[in-house]
């Protein structure tokens, strides 16, 4: 039968879990204190040492659909945090709250509190444009502009007026491409369209484009899902380097990737943040049964 | 009854029927295409067969004595009153001396166009030093002679039933044998305005009228249409009002064009007191007509821009305005331009609304500004098709050929533009 939970504030949500055959899990992982029901508070540790972005009780509604519920999470400076969970669990939605990309969806409504460096990013006088310059984003599908490689990288600095002259802009473009590990492949063809590159190169171009604005946080929404393993490995190496300067939040469907690149992992399930903890702990000793089921491949 | 055939047997049993169905459908499609091409072929070949001869016109070679006594009887040349026709007539009499009586002469004079006198006047006004000399000139024959030469008048039917008398036909043959009759390129068709004389009638007035109208139309409908499309697609909130606007724009695109003409008459002419028959008003009416087309095409083009490009720009911190002008607009522009050109070619071919605002008047002068009275090409075609003279029939077809030529060029431009500017992502 269902094991008793030590930190369950909502035992009334338990009955629907009772029907689940948990015998097998209990036999395999005879661990005391395992949480099994959905709807309780996030288990593990949502806080971190040097919090930079802090989300408190974030709820997102798309019209009548309550997409994520009461999510609280701290994102630290210079760390990679991976958001994992089955499709539709709200991890991308949460990610898009962090740079207010949800603003572009008319029916989306966000409640709760998200701060960046101590300041509420949903406060009235916060300009989402300024926020997105500080919180960059890399998307699932490589989406370079149908412009030259140079113009792709130079676009952000141009609209934000980061470069005083052409030489400075050249410099930003080169450094960004260098940091994205792309410079050697494209330095002789900066005038060619960004769309002429291979998928992996395009994604690195998108990363270069993002870091050209010199953001403080980089959000990555399944950046490797459209890439082959070699290109994926390159992006992962890149993330290792980039996390020395930036806070990185990555949504991924690959448990291996989460294990390889992240310092902390947050597991989402049906719009709830189920468990957050250090990567090692999550993968070796998850506190919530759902997390365990997911990482062992039983759901998702 | 149970069917104990295997799945494979069932599939194979159905195959011949499926193949027959496919074949039937293919044949039907081919038939439809063939019928379409056939009709198009008939249309074009009849048009060209009828209209091609209008690009040629019969000219008569006359040795015209630019006599000072006739032109400047008082020693002073007055271009407005000088008897240029008299010079042409005496030159004709010199060629055909046997036409002696008054009636004969009057008949004789009718074989040249009344435009011959104007041609002499133009020559004198261009180079007055020729006064007193004798010049060999090719002057246009009258439209009836032209029709005779082109074989459109049967010389064998009863004299009273044809526009040319036996005598006139005889004189034409005489001139023909003397090598004084020639079929030449009909320049007048392209350089003249409308005229009651078919041999002098041209489409320049109508072409210029159409051009001025299109200028007004494109100058207004492209910016307004694109701005409206951008606003509706990118900035307007989705609510009952924007739904209402959308439905109405789609409805406007289907409103019969003559209704726009009535609107133009009521608003632009009666209320705003703009001049009648003016390309300005025509252009305004055609703007109303093409706006829904352009808005719909532009919105479709904007919708076709992948959201990933928008997200990429937004994610970098571009404002909504920057997203639109840096990314969406450049990508949507080929589609917008194609829509505009197609709207323009619809406007160019439109005649009904122009009838309402007085552009159906008989106007000889080539319009020189937006407020000059003018007609448009399709209206000119309508006017000529309505004219009783036999020679206007071929000119109607010729004008249709020119109109179709313009439309073809515009549609070709749309295709080329689309090919050139379309970018892949």
Characteristics:
heterodimer; A: 300 residues; alpha/beta; 7-stranded mixed sheet; 4-stranded antiparallel sheet; 11 strands; 34% helix; globular; disordered N terminus; B: 425 residues; mainly alpha; 3-stranded antiparallel sheet; 3 strands
Could you describe the 3D structure shown?
- The complex is a heterodimer of chains A (300) and B (425).
- Chain A is α/β, with parallel strands linked by helices and 300 residues long.
- Chain A is 34% helix and 23% strand.
- Chain A has a seven-stranded mixed β-sheet, sandwiched between helices. Chain A has a four-stranded antiparallel β-sheet with strand order 3-2-5-6, with helices on one face.
- In chain A, helix 5 runs parallel beside helix 8 (199-211), helix 6 (166-179) crosses helix 8 and helix 8 (199-211) runs parallel beside helix 9 (229-242).
- The longest helix of chain A is centred in the middle third of the chain and has 14 residues, at 166-179.
- The two termini of chain A are 23 Å apart.
- Residues 1-30 of chain A have low confidence and may be disordered.
- The longest helix of chain B has 45 residues, at 7-51.
- In chain B, 38% of the residues are buried.
- The two termini of chain B are 57 Å apart.
- In chain B, 64% of the residues lie in helices and 5% in strands.
- Chain B has a three-stranded antiparallel β-sheet with strand order 2-1-3.
- In chain B, helix 9 packs parallel to helix 12 (279-303).
- The model of chain B has no long low-confidence stretch (mean pLDDT 90).
- Chain B has 17 helices and three strands.
- By secondary structure, chain B is mostly helical.
- The chains are: A alpha/beta (300), B mainly alpha (425).
- Chains A and B meet through helix 4, strand 7, helix 5 and helix 8 of A and helix 13 and helix 14 of B.
């Amino acid at each position: 039968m269902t094991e008793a939970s030590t930190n369950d504030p909502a035992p009334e949500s338990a009955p629907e879990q009772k029907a689940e055959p948990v015998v097998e899990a209990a036999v395999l992982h005879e661990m005391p204190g395992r949480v099994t029901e959905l709807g309780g508070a996030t288990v593990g540790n949502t806080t971190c040492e040097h919090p930079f972005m802090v989300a408190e009780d974030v709820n997102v509604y798309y019209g009548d659909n309550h997409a994520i519920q009461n999510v609280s999470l701290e994102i630290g400076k210079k760390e990679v945090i991976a958001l994992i969970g089955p499709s539709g669990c709200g991890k991308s939605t949460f990610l898009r709250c962090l740079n207010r990309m949800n603003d572009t969806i008319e029916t989306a409504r966000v409640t709760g509190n998200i701060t960046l460096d101590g300041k509420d990013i949903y406060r009235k006088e916060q300009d989402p444009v300024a926020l997105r310059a500080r919180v960059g984003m890399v998307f699932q599908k490589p989406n370079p502009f149908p412009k030259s490689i140079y113009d792709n990288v130079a676009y952000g600095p141009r609209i934000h007026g980061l470069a005083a002259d052409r030489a400075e802009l050249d410099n930003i473009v080169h450094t960004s491409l260098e940091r994205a590990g792309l410079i050697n492949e494209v330095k002789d063809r900066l005038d060619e369209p960004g769309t002429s590159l291979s998928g992996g190169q395009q994604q690195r171009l998108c990363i270069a484009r993002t870091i050209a604005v010199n953001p403080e946080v980089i959000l990555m929404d399944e950046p490797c899902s459209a890439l082959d393993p070699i290109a994926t490995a390159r992006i992962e190496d890149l993330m290792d380097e980039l996390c020395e300067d930036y806070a990185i939040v990555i949504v991924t469907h690959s448990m291996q990737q989460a294990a390889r690149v992240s310092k902390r992992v947050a597991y989402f399930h049906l719009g709830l943040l189920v468990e957050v903890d250090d990567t090692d702990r999550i993968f070796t000793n998850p506190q919530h049964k759902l997390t365990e089921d997911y990482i062992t491949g039983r759901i998702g | 009854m149970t069917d104990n055939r295997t799945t494979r047997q069932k599939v194979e049993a159905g195959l011949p029927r499926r193949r027959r169905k496919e074949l039937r459908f293919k044949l039907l499609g081919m038939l439809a295409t063939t019928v379409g091409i056939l009709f198009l072929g008939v249309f074009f070949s009849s048009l060209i067969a009828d209209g091609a001869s209008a690009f040629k016109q019969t000219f008569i070679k006359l040795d015209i004595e630019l006599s000072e006594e006739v032109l400047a009887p008082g020693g002073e040349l007055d271009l407005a009153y000088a008897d240029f026709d008299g010079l042409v007539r005496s030159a004709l009499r010199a060629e055909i001396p046997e036409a002696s009586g008054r009636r004969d002469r009057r008949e004789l004079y009718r074989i040249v166009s009344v435009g011959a006198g104007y041609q002499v006047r133009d020559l004198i006004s261009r180079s007055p030093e020729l006064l007193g000399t004798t010049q060999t000139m090719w002057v246009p024959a009258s439209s009836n002679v032209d029709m005779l030469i082109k074989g459109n008048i049967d010389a064998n039917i009863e004299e009273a039933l044809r526009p040319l008398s036996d005598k006139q036909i005889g004189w034409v043959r005489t001139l023909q044998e003397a090598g004084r009759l020639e079929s030449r390129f009909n320049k007048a068709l392209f350089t003249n305005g409308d005229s009651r004389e078919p041999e002098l009638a041209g489409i320049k007035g109508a072409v210029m009228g159409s051009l001025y109208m299109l200028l007004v139309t494109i100058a207004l409908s492209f910016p307004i249409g694109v701005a409206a499309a951008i606003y509706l697609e990118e900035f307007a909130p989705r609510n009952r009002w924007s739904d209402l606007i959308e439905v109405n724009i789609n409805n406007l695109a289907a409103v019969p064009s003559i209704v726009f003409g009535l609107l133009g008459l009521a608003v632009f002419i009666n209320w705003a007191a703009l001049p009648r028959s003016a390309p300005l008003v025509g252009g305004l009416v055609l703007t109303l007509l093409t706006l829904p087309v352009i808005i719909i095409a532009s919105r479709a083009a904007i919708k076709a821009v992948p959201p990933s490009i928008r997200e990429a720009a937004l994610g970098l911190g571009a404002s909504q305005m920057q997203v639109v002008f840096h990314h969406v607009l450049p990508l949507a522009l080929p589609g917008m331009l194609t829509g505009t050109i197609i709207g323009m070619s619809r406007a160019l071919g439109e005649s009904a609304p122009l009838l309402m605002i007085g552009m159906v008047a008989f106007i000889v002068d080539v319009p020189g500004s937006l407020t000059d009275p003018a007609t448009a090409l399709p209206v000119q075609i309508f006017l000529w098709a309505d004219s009783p003279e036999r020679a206007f029939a071929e000119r109607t077809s010729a004008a249709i050929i020119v109109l179709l030529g313009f439309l073809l060029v515009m549609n070709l431009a749309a295709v080329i533009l689309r090919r050139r500017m379309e970018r892949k992502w």
